[in-house]
Automatic annotation (TrEMBL):
Residues forming coiled coils: none
EC class (word): hydrolase
Protein name as it appears in the record: Putative 3-methyladenine DNA glycosylase
Pfam families listed in its UniProt record: Pur_DNA_glyco (PF02245)
Example GO biological process: base-excision repair
EC annotation from Swiss-Prot or TrEMBL: 3.2.2.-
Signal peptide: none
Keyword Glycoprotein attached: no
Keyword annotations from UniProtKB, A to Z: DNA damage, DNA repair, Hydrolase
InterPro entries: Formyl_transferase-like_C_sf, MPG, MPG_sf
Alphabetized GO MF terms: alkylbase DNA N-glycosylase activity; DNA binding
Keyword Cytoplasm: no
CDD domains, sorted: AAG
Amino acid sequence: MKKLGYDFYNREDVLTIAQELLGKVLVTKFNGAVTSGRIVETEAYQGVTDRASHAYGGRRTNRTEIMFGKAGTAYVYLCYGIHHLFNVVTNKENTPHAILIRAIAPLNGIPHMLARTGRTKADYTLGKGPGNVSKALGINTQHTGTSLTGKELYIADDDFIVSPSAIGITKRIGVDYAGEDALLPYRFILKDSPYVSGRKIRS
């Protein structure tokens, strides 16, 4: 596998990057445990102009400051006080674009994933939904700010080919508060993957 470099993330079009992340492999190497999963669902967030983004209107807080930083950095936040959600920061500094990884198809280290999630059997829920992604891979808010070009947490290309016809495009999930921006077609899925969360609306 070839690790994605800084130039992959440091581009202006967050929608293109979100689509190109489909089929890539998200890898963690924590405390000797190596786990990975193929990305099958992403959501793009377009920064200060996107009402669904944490950085909408240029909002800068201790939590969101990482979004304004260097591309290819992890942004991990706590949702509902329970779920650690993993995002990829993109674009140049001070342009807070980000991509939420919503689902993976587990590949390696499944016994570690089961132990982390308290499961006894690997079914489709293991990598379905952004909370499960982070839990299975051992990602938490302590990893926010981690470079995705390092050794512990990164995304790689293993030459898996995703055809344009395999990609579904829908509105995002759980952002009804964003008004008209909730309807933007910023969610991308591999249509045939059983790990995709929510409705698999075809595009």
